[in-house]
Specification:
mainly beta, 8% helix, 143 residues, 12 strands, 47% strand
Length: 143
């Protein structure tokens, strides 16, 4: 799906040529549901948009998210990981968790075009590899 800008005129000069040039540059956002694991009540979505420099902007939003310590004893944080096609896992960042709203979100960028996003429960924010406590995941293939 490609977004099309509205054509308009300014002072009698048509801006249609600008819209034609921009339509090739604008990228549609791809949205995916997350697959819950540790707590089936968790609802999540993942949006990916191609941005300049070949990067992908990844926006992750989770709701109905219980506190980490309710998922498993000793957990204090939720961490988001990207796994590339060769299996290398990279820490995308800490999920910003709002206890009052029971929600979390993260904005990150990646140069991967195909990857798996995983949200794990961790004991602290210094994790260098994902724990075995998988909260949600989603495989993504972008264009």
């Amino acid at each position: 799906m490609r977004l099309r800008p509205q054509l308009s005129s300014l002072g009698g000069i048509s801006l249609g040529f600008a819209a034609i040039g921009l339509s090739g540059c604008m990228q549609a956002t791809q949205t995916y549901p997350l697959v819950p694991h540790a707590d089936p009540g968790v609802v999540g979505s993942l949006s990916v948009e191609r941005i300049e420099g070949g990067q992908r902007l990844v926006v992750l939003e989770l709701s109905q998210l219980p506190p980490p310590e309710r998922i498993a004893p000793g957990l204090t944080q939720f961490v988001v990981w990207f796994e590339g096609p060769r299996g290398k896992e990279v820490k995308a960042g800490m999920l910003r968790y709002d206890r009052t709203r029971r929600s979390g979100n993260l904005l990150a960028t990646t140069d991967l075009t195909a990857f798996t996003v995983r949200v794990t429960g961790e004991r602290d924010n210094h994790a260098v590899t994902p724990s075995g406590v998988l909260l949600a995941e989603r495989k993504v293939v972008t264009n």
